[in-house]
Amino acid sequence: MSHPLSIEPCDAPTSTEQRQALLHNPVFGKVFTDHMVTAQHSADKGWHQARLKARHDFQFSPGTTVLHYGLEIFEGLKAYRQANGSVALFRPEANAKRFANSARRLAMPPLPEAMFVESVKALAQLDKDWIPQQDFASLYLRPFMIATDATLGLKPAEECLFSVIACPVGAYFKGGAAAVSLWVSDHFTRAAPGGTGDAKCGGNYAAAMVAQLEASRQGCDQVVFLDAVERLWVEELGGMNVFFVFDDGSIQTPPLTGTILPGITRDSILQLAMDKGLTVREERYSIDQWQQDAQSGRLVEAFACGTAAVVTPIGSVRGNRHEFTIGNGQGGEVTAMLKGALLDIQYGRADDPHGWMLALD
Fold first, then answer.
1. CA 20 to 30 Å from 51, out of 120, 164, 259, 346?
2. In the structure, what pLDDT confidence band is assigned to residue 26 with cuts at 50, 70 and 90?
3. Nearest to 336 by CA among 313, 315, 358, 356
4. Could you tell me which of 79, 94, 132 has the C-alpha nearest to residue 265?
């Protein structure tokens, strides 16, 4: 690592008893571990002061750039307890590469990929006792970068703060494999050509909130976005990619054209499907065709995927112009098979032919 990480364990870590109580049934993103990583960037020093130390609050000037122009990016990845008791990260190199791409899209200084990997690895190692013991549990790591220039001038960031925090998590959707319902947003869009749809930045998620609120008011779990030009092509959910499974056993997902986040779980599912001998297509799919295929029986399953929720069956879709159920409304064999194959690798229950798991020292 070209930027040495100083490791300073906190003086007063959470006691074993307190930690076990917090790990009993952690709500996603509500409980945080004892430590965090921070590093600074400036125009003259580049990246420096990389430290792993006790988690603490930040203090900024009210004129800090991120507070006014949203210059912020983030990632999400997990550390999993393996079948042999060790701990490993899932594809951190892929997150490091996407993090650097997001930084370049927002005119922020890219973090060296080796520095990213070493940071998440060190934090997961130091706080590995925070991984819950129950099924589907893991340690969720949230690397992020914000522009910290104290100026209201609209310009690319020179001063930045990189940080990694971690939280213990169980299943994202309570109830495990229950299928989710979707609301079709035909008024709001997530991203447009030339925008930041393929960058993992906070603004994309902020813009999706009102559509997710609309979905909740309609009694649906998640929102599904259509393209911004024709309002016809299915793109992704508020925070997950989407897949379709057909009666011939083939699977399809929308292509990466710049408006869809290149999900690491998405990429992994594509590879696993090919490993299983399935025909895989990355092609556009319209919302009208989705409804027609579901009603005719040509489409037998659909699922969403992402780091937080892993793989989640989609049971039904509703909107102002659409309403249909997919298969039996509960998911299906292909979805379950792909989810199981992914989880078996992540938890060390199966071989890792693609070298996705990075073991901690």
1. 346
2. confident
3. 313
4. 94
Structure confidence at residue 2 (pLDDT):
54
Residue type, 215: A
Closest CA to 306 of 225, 235, 240, 222: 240
Q: How far apart are CA 289 and CA 315, in angstroms?
A: 16
What number of helices (H) and strands (E) belong to the chain? 8, 18
- Is the sign of the CA dihedral 271, 103, 3, 165 positive or negative? negative
Return d(Cα 12, Cα 7) in angstroms, integer.
15
Question: Do residue 91 and residue 222 come from a single domain?
Answer: no
- The per-residue pLDDT for range 28-70, each reduced to its tens digit, is 889 999 999 999 999 999 999 999 999 999 999 999 999 999 9
Assess contact for 166 and 26: CB atoms under 8 A: no
Residues 265 and 212 reside in one and the same domain = yes
Q: Which of 233, 247, 248, 242 is nearest to 191 (CA)?
A: 233
| Per-residue confidence (pLDDT) for residue 136, from 0 to 100 | 84
Phi and psi at residue 65, to the nearest 5°? -55, -45
For 102, phi and psi rounded to 5 degrees?
-65, -40
Kindly tell me if the per-residue pLDDT of 350 is higher than 60.
yes
Going by pLDDT thresholds of 50, 70 and 90, the confidence category of residue 175 is: low
pLDDT at 214 exceeding the cut of 90:
yes
Angle at 213 between CA 211 and CA 216, to 5 degrees: 115
Q: What share of the chain is helix, strand, coil (3-state, %, to 5)?
A: 25, 30, 45
The residue segments making up the domain with residue 234 are 180-346
Residue 174 tokens, joined:
């309570």
Are residues 123 and 76 part of one domain? yes
Judge if 209 and 88 occupy the same domain: no
**Averaged pLDDT, 330-341:** 95
